[in-house]
């Protein structure tokens, strides 16, 4: 199966201060989005393996777009999400976001051993989705629990899936609620 892409979108949020407190480094969050045709729209298909396998190429394309958007910063956090149009099933969105799709993202950012947080839902054009973010090497680094809100005015159409990858270059600005620190995280979480 070859995934048909209608369009790509990139969103950048670059925050310098919060609560009047300037951070030592800005927080840059990006979202790279592909609007794809849902090959299973309007019908039930038991075996979603062809879509899962085809998602590897989509993962590589979105990862490259995401890495370019976060430059000049390295990625410390990642997340993924998808909105499937109303003629599809939520399971179609989940099929696109498996490890097959995610491994190219890990490779593109130079590694990542933690599970990639994700969220999927059904929706129409203009549906809002909050993409969860977490530290790339250990899920329990509390300073990096964050997210990015995305809305696409013209997607997904009923027979489409909006596939989203998010990256951030650091944890939240002014993070100070404790928990595992980023520099203590080595070996604390494995890929799952």
Give the secondary structure arrangement, pairings included:
Layout (H helix, E strand, L loop, with lengths): L4 E14 L2 E17 L11 H22 L6 E8 L5 H7 L2 H10 L8 E6 L5 E8 L10 E6 L8 E9 L24
Parallel strand pairs: 3-4
Antiparallel strand pairs: 1-2, 2-7, 3-5, 3-7, 5-6
Helix pairs in contact: 1-3
Give a verbal description of the structure.
The chain has 192 residues and is α+β, with helices and mostly antiparallel strands. It has a single domain, classed as BB2672 (60s Ribosomal Protein L30, Chain: A, 2-Layer Sandwich), CATH 3.30.1330.110. Helices cover 20% and strands 35% of the residues. Strands 1, 2, 3, 4, 5, 6 and 7 form a seven-stranded mixed beta sheet that branches.
Index terms:
single chain, 192 residues, alpha+beta, 60s Ribosomal Protein L30, Chain: A, seven-stranded mixed sheet, 3 helices, 7 strands, globular
Summarize the structure.
This protein has 192 residues and is an alpha+beta fold. The chain has helices at 49-70, 90-96, 99-108; strands spanning 5-18, 21-37, 77-84, 117-122, 128-135, 146-151, 160-168.
Largest beta-sheet characterization: 7 strands, mixed
- The CATH architecture comes to 2-Layer Sandwich
Provide the CATH top-level class.
Alpha Beta
* H-E string: EEHEHHEEEE
Radius of gyration: 17 Å
Q: What is the typical, i.e. mean, pLDDT?
A: 93
Secondary-structure-based class equals: alpha+beta
Q: How much of the residues is beta strand, in percent?
A: 35-45%
| Unreliable sequence segments | none
Number of extended strands: 7
For CATH, the homologous superfamily is named as BB2672
Helix content: 10-25%
Number of domains: 1
User: Please, how many helices?
Assistant: 3
| CATH domain topology | 60s Ribosomal Protein L30, Chain: A
Tell the overall outline.
Answer: globular
